[in-house]
Each structure stands twice: as C-alpha cells, then as structure tokens.
Specification:
Strand content of chain A: under 5%
Number of helices of chain A: 11
Strand order of the largest sheet of chain B: 1-2
Helix content of chain A: over 70%
CATH topology of the largest domain in chain B: MetI-like fold
Number of domains of chain B: 2
Structural class of chain B: mainly alpha
Largest interface: A-B, 93 and 95 residues
Number of strands of chain A: 0
Largest sheet of chain B: 2 strands, antiparallel
Strand content of chain B: under 5%
Helix content of chain B: over 70%
Radius of gyration of chain B: 26 Å
Structural class of chain A: mainly alpha
Order of helices and strands of chain B: HHEEHHHHHHHHHHHHH
CATH class of the largest domain in chain B: Mainly Alpha
Number of domains of chain A: 1
CATH topology of chain A: MetI-like fold
Order of helices and strands of chain A: HHHHHHHHHHH
CATH superfamily of the largest domain in chain B: MetI-like
Largest sheet of chain A: none
Shape of chain B: flat
Shape of chain A: globular
CATH architecture of chain A: Orthogonal Bundle
CATH superfamily of chain A: MetI-like
Oligomer: heterodimer
Radius of gyration of chain A: 23 Å
Number of helices of chain B: 15
C-alpha cells in the first residue's frame, strides 16, 4: 500500500468513527444527565438519582400532554394503515391507467416539509371556520405519515410471491380465505414496521403539530418545545431520555419485523 | 340503434375493466383523503399569499401580486433567504463528507459492525428532532455546557466559549440531525454495487485511492444525488434548529414563516413566505437532480 492509500484509509476510518460518535454521544449525554442529583444541568453529572423521573409523574400537565400525544399517534397509525395498506395493494398489483402518477401523488406529502403541511391545514381549516384541535393534528399527521405506511407496504408487497395466492385460489380457497390466510400473514411484517414508524413519527413530530395543535390541549412535542426554551432543570433531560428509550423500543420492533437493513426513508 | 347501444356498452365495458378490474379501487380512499386534506389545503396556502385577509375573512376580489412584489423588494427577505441557502448547503456538504465514509465502511464491514452502524444511524432517526436539538443546547451551552465545563475543569480556558447562538452551532446541529438521511440512501446504493469493477481496477494496477475516486464514487452517484437533494430540502426548510441553536436573533426564511404565522399572526405575509420557501426548495431539488443527471452522462455511453 502506498502512502496515499494509507492516508486515505486512515481518513476514511477517522471520519466514520467521528460520524458514529457524533450520532450516538449527544443522546448518551442527555441520558447521563437525567440521573443527576443536582437541580441544574451540569457535566459530568453528579450522583445517581431518579428524582427527576419521579418529579415528572407529579406534573399533571406533562402527563396530560403525553396522553394526548399517545392518542394522536394511535389514531394516526390506525388511519395510515387502514388507508395505506389497501392503497399499496393497488399500486403494486393493480394494472390501471396512470398507476405511476397515482403512486407519485400518494407519496408526495413526504417530499414536503412538515411545516408546509401543518400551515396548509391550518389555513384550510380557518377558511371554513375550523380551528386547531387534536383532530386537526391527527389529519395533518396522517397526511404526513401516509407515504411511510404506503412505501413500506409496497416494498414488502413487491418482494412477496403472488403465485402463493394463485395456488391457494386454485386449491379451492375462497378469495377472502386466501386474503386472510396467505396474503395478510406474508404482508404482516410490512404492516408492523410501517405502523411502528408512523407511530413514533406521529408521537414526536413537532413541525406539523406546532401549527395544528390547539393551545388548550397540547401534544408532548409542543409542550417540550416550550420547556426546552424556558426550563433549564434536568426534568427536560428526563423526558428526553424517555423519548430516546421509546425510539429504541420502536427500533427493536423494526429490527424484528423487516430488519434494519431493509428500512428506507 | 342497436349497434349504437352495443358500441356504448363495449366502451363502458372497456372503461369498467380499466377502472375496476385493474384494481384501482383500494387506492381510491387514499386519493380522496389526500385530495381533500393535502392538495386542496396546499392550493389554499398558496392562494392566501395573493389575496387580502382581514381579521380572518378572505377578500377574493383583492387578488393581486402586491404581497409578492413587496416581499421580493425587501432586502431583509434576501438576507434571510441567503442565510437559509448557505447554512443548508454547508450542512448538506458536511453530511455528505461524514455520511459517505460511514456508508462505504458499512459495505466492507463484518455483520457486527454493520449492525452497530445501522443502530447508530436509525436510532437517532427515530428520536425526536427536538430532543436531539436539546442535546446540542446542553452540549454547547454556556458555563454549564458540557464542552465548556470540561474545558474549564481542565484549565484549558478561563471563561466559557460562546458556542451557542452562532452559525457554528446551527450548522453542527443540522448536520448531526440530518446525517441519517444521507447515510441510508448511500448504504442502499453502495451495497448494491458491482464489486468486480473495483477488483478489476485494483488488478490492473490502480491504487486504492484512485479506485475509490474513479470507480466507487462515480457508481454511487445516484445515492449521492438522492441523499444530497433530501438533506438539502430538509435543512433549507428546518426552522427548529435555527430557532433553538441560533437564538432569538438568528432568522432564516423558514423561521420567518413560523414567526409570521404563529407569533405575529400576519397570514398574508406568512403565506407568501411559505410559498416562496416551497417553490425555491422545489427548484433547488430540481437543480440538484439536473446537475446529477449531467454528471451521470457517462452512464449513457456505456449502455
């Protein structure tokens, strides 16, 4: 190996190491700080206590907003699956005019920043005299997340073997029977992965929620947006750590369902 | 008369086959949902920039380009636009420089390292961008910031360095937050590449460095372009990071949109700024793809 090659190899490994540390370390620091005993954020954190977590449970406002967020995420996930999975079927197995145009249209919201989707629905609602509410957040979030659900299901459907469906049908199974016994079990990993992705996105997305959420019942992300700016106590670190833990749980679901290397954003 | 009816019947039959038998049915709810809650709101958003809104009432007789022209004539607007543009560009280039080595190493690494890289890339992607921005506020903060307190403890500095509320903190935060969006498309393209090409290049006596830049980088261009366009678009339109890491005086085009719509409640101005942000972003993405296709011209020759 020449000197240039060695230098190149060194740079490659150094940059990769730096990038990986940069990705992991900030979250790790937040988790470490959340266990501090002191009343302010400091590094290195001193002592070990769970007092900021127990303090969290006393803040009714935070609990309420977490429940609001869970509800929003749940309904958004159900809606995205109910609308998205059938759509994916059409787009992969259907043969109709303008299929590629329709595909482009249903995944289009993903190309736009969440802010634009939020503002568009805010204005649209205001024009008809409808104001910000949880329902508006759910609708905006579904618009924003639907492309994820559709694309994950489409990817799964395109590698699925449709001859199995034909075999089942030719062996005398009814169309409904084939659908529930052959097609759905094969598609399930795609539904689970898409659903998990939509759930976490709808739970912690801020750019859509900031414009569509009502000031009276704010989702956790909007609540956190204010806390981050005006509250310097480690309680924010504790909420953040819980969200990081939540992200890891979702990642486990993704890894078990379709595998992390199959995930496309 | 009968023949006429048969013709109509057969046309209907063909149409029915195209529409129903073709299996368009299940996608119709998605189309209706998005027409109603995505396409129409988007039209409303764009049109709000061209009419007058007085106390929430839209005056459709007042259609004019006044808001557009007054915005474009404003030098402050160009100032904020320029900041959005260059901050987005620099952080996208940094993402490419950091993301490419990760994706390349991924394709050479063993299973264990591959899993580590995937976990390191995907776990931040699933963590709220707000939490990750907050992490940078804690790391880069003043006297009690992580970096400053370590440097102070080690007596490297006497008083804290002001990292936060600068171009540096905004670019650093944006780069870290958007890095996964660069790594994933690159991994997809680099994993699918034909490894025999680089083997041939090495066998023919090219150095590893030369093989990297002459073979591997060119065949991964589709991934580079996809990642670059995606990361630029989300950096250009991000308003959370400039707001939180840039501080109150750090304004970009996207921050302006937020301020006018949520804080100042001037929806006319907000709508026209959102319209300009969206269209300019669209043209930049088109431009990136255009340059990318031009750079990939050699592919046409080999075909």
């Amino acid at each position: 190996m020449s000197f240039d090659d060695k230098l190149g190899k060194f740079l490659l490994i150094a940059l990769t190491g730096f990038a990986l540390l940069m990705l992991i370390v900030p979250s790790a620091i937040i988790v470490a700080i959340s266990f501090t005993e002191k009343a302010y954020i400091g590094f290195p954190p001193s002592g070990f206590s769970l007092k900021w977590y127990s303090e969290l449970l006393d803040k009714q406002q935070l609990i309420d907003s977490a429940v609001t967020s869970l509800w929003i995420a749940f309904v958004t996930t159900v809606l995205s699956i109910l609308i998205g999975i059938p759509a994916a079927f059409s787009l992969v197995r259907g043969r109709f005019l303008g299929r590629s145009e329709v595909t482009a249209f249903v995944v289009a919201p993903q190309m736009l920043p969440g802010m634009v989707i939020g503002i568009a629905l805010l204005f649209f609602g205001a024009y008809f005299g409808i104001y910000q509410s949880n329902t508006m957040v759910i609708i905006a979030m579904t618009v924003f997340c639907l492309p994820f659900a559709i694309r994950v299901a489409m990817a799964r459907l395109s590698i699925m073997d449709s001859t199995l469906d034909e075999a089942s049908a030719s062996l005398g199974s009814s169309r409904l029977g084939t659908f529930f016994r052959i097609t759905i079990p094969q598609l399930l990993p795609g539904i689970v992965a898409g659903g998990a992705f939509v759930f976490i996105e709808a739970f912690d997305n801020i750019t859509v929620a900031l414009f569509t959420a009502s000031p009276r019942s704010r989702p956790l992300s909007v609540e956190l947006y204010n806390l981050v700016q005006f509250d310097s106590s480690p309680i924010v670190a504790a909420i953040s750590s819980l969200e990081i833990l939540f992200a890891f749980l979702i990642m486990l679901v993704l890894a078990r369902s379709i595998g992390l290397d199959k995930l496309r954003v | 008369m009968n023949a006429h009816n048969n013709l109509i019947d057969s046309i209907f039959e063909i149409l029915r086959k195209i529409i129903l038998r073709g299996g368009i049915g299940p996608v119709i709810p998605a189309i209706i949902f998005l027409l109603f809650f995505f396409a129409m709101p988007l039209v409303v958003l764009c049109s709000f920039g061209f009419v007058s809104i007085d106390r929430g009432v839209v005056d459709w007789n007042s259609i004019s380009l006044d808001h557009l022209t007054s915005t474009i004539k404003d030098t402050l607007f160009w100032h904020f636009w320029w900041r959005s543009f260059w901050v987005g560009t620099v952080s996208t280039i940094l993402c490419l420089c950091l993301g490419y080595p990760v994706a390349y190493i991924y394709t050479l690494a063993g299973r264990g390292w591959q899993i580590l890289i995937l976990v390191a890339t995907i776990s931040p992607l699933l963590t709220s961008a707000l939490v990750r921005t907050y992490a940078w506020m804690v790391i880069l903060g003043g006297r009690r910031g992580v970096v400053n307190s370590i440097l102070l403890d080690l007596d490297f500095i006497d008083r804290p360095i002001r990292f936060l509320y600068s171009d540096f903190s905004v670019i650093l935060g944006m780069t870290q937050i958007h890095l996964p969006f660069m790594i994933l498309p690159l991994i997809t393209v680099l994993s699918a590449r034909d490894f025999s090409l680089e083997q041939a290049s090495l066998n023919l006596g090219a150095s590893r460095l030369k093989t990297f830049f002459k073979i591997i980088v060119p065949i991964s261009l589709p991934g580079i372009i996809a990642g670059f366009a995606l990361v630029f678009a989300i950096s250009y339109t991000n308003f959370i990071v400039p707001q939180l890491l840039g501080g109150g005086n750090y304004t970009t085009l996207a921050v302006q949109v937020y301020e006018f719509i949520v804080v100042i409640l001037d929806w006319n101005k907000g709508a026209i700024l959102a319209f300009l942000l969206l269209t300019s972003c669209f043209f930049f993405v088109l431009g990136i793809n255009y340059i990318g296709n031009w750079a990939m011209k050699w592919k046409e020759v080999t075909r």
